[in-house]
Amino acid sequence: MKKNSLFSVGSMVDSVLSRHGIGKQVLSASVVTTAERILVSLLAPEMKDDVRALSFKDNVLTLACRHSAALYDAESFAAKLGRSLEENFPSLSIKVEAKLRPDAFPEEEAHDIV
């Protein structure tokens, strides 16, 4: 009787991702999610709702900024965020770009000025 080989869970996941051609999308989602988690520690409290990780494509993480002050803040820590992400994803070389993208923030999250 032929001995069955056991695959690690990681190997099975890699196989499924490869077979369905969704590996890049899953990796991108993981980078964006991790960036969101790291952003919490990098952002000043008053900016926490004004900067978010928007997308990851071609080794570039795009940060969406609600206004120019948030853009200025995000540009100041972009390199640090990139290094932190590279620690979490050692096989990647990640560049972080901050862009003024107020359209990336839904209206229901908009700040009310009283």
Put the structure in a nutshell.
This protein is α+β, with helices and mostly antiparallel strands and about 110 residues long. The chain has helices at about 10-20, 25-40, 70-90, and strands at about 50-55, 60-65, 95-100.
Structure description:
With 114 residues, this protein is of the alpha+beta class. The protein has three helices and three strands; from the N terminus they run ααββαβ. β2 (60-65), α3 and β3 form a beta-alpha-beta unit. The longest helix is centred in the C-terminal third of the chain and has 21 residues, at 68-88.
Instruction: Please identify the structural class as seen in this structure.
Output: alpha+beta
Q: Major β-sheet, in short?
A: 3 strands, mixed
Radius of gyration (CA) equals: 18 Å
Query: How do the SSEs run, as a string of H and E?
Result: HHEEHE
Distance between the termini: 76 Å
Strand percentage lies at: 15-25%
Unreliable spans: none
Walk across the major sheet and give the strand order. Answer: 1-2-3
Average predicted local confidence, pLDDT: 84
**Helical proportion?**
40-55%
Number of strands: 3
Characterize the quaternary organization of these chains.
single chain
What is the general shape? globular
- Per DSSP, the total helix count is 3
Which features does this protein show?
single chain, 114 residues, three-stranded mixed sheet, 46% helix, globular
Which helices and strands, and how do they pair?
Elements: H1 9-20, H2 23-42, E1 51-57, E2 60-65, H3 68-88, E3 95-100
Parallel strand pairs: 2-3
Antiparallel strand pairs: 1-2
Helix pairs in contact: 2-3
